[in-house]
Amino acid sequence: MLSHAFTLWGSAVTWLEIVAFVLAFGCVAFNVVESHWGWPLAIVSSALYGWLFYVNRIYGDASLQVFFAATAAWGWWQWLFGRRAGDPAGARLQVARLRPATVGAAALVWLTAWLVLGALLDRFTDTDVPYLDAFPTAGSVIGQLLLARKYLENWWVWLVVNVASIALFSWKALWLTAVLYAVFLVLSAIGLRRWQKTLQVRP
Fold first, then answer.
1. Contacts from 23-28 at CB under 8 Å and sequence distance 24+?
2. Residue 58: how many CB atoms within 10 A of its CB?
3. Would the pLDDT of 48 be above 70?
């Protein structure tokens, strides 16, 4: 899996990165259209990306993939069987908005987690990008939890995370993954618009 498949912009692309790319793309595409089949793809792609990031000393994102795999299983269950308080029995989990106070709290948690994680990575690992790694890592935790519970604001989080991730993976010359996150950026904008329309047409 770590063997050289081809060269992209002067850097080697492995088969591991290619397979992870394809599965991760499928995962987000399914999320955009509210299909629960994105979650099993997320479990496998997270495991593969965890391996890839560890090899490239992106330890924050490598650890994040373990969290992604675990929450993907939870998110799959939520999209199949989860409900909100007051929903009728058997009702499918619907797209919803966060309250403004919750949005502010999430932003504060993201900022705090970024600074703390960045300091830990800087102190205890040999990474050369502690804070650039920590920022999308912390945001991805929030985005994943919001996505699992179908909150619209997850797409705003992913828009910011994807921009930061493009910078991170470009710096590490993981060009195929940088391209993937550019695609994710577009899919996040599409997902945001699609879910907004879902809220607008709901009675």
1. 23/48, 24/49, 24/180, 24/184, 25/180, 25/183, 28/184, 28/187, 28/188, 28/191
2. 28
3. yes
pTM: 0.85
Are the C-beta atoms of 57 and 50 separated by less than 8 Å?
A: no
* pLDDT of 86 strictly over 90: no
Distances in whole angstroms, Cα of residue 62 to Cα of each of 25, 65, 67, 77, 198: 18, 5, 9, 24, 34
Cα–Cα dist 46/170, whole Å: 19
The structure tokens listed for 74 are 């939870």
Is residue 140 within 8 A of residue 122, CB to CB? The reply is: no
**Mean confidence (pLDDT) of the chain:** 88
Instruction: Identify the CA nearest to 58 among candidates 144, 7, 121, 111.
Output: 121
| Calpha distance 39→28 (Å, rounded) | 9
Hey, where are the domains in the chain?
4-83+99-201
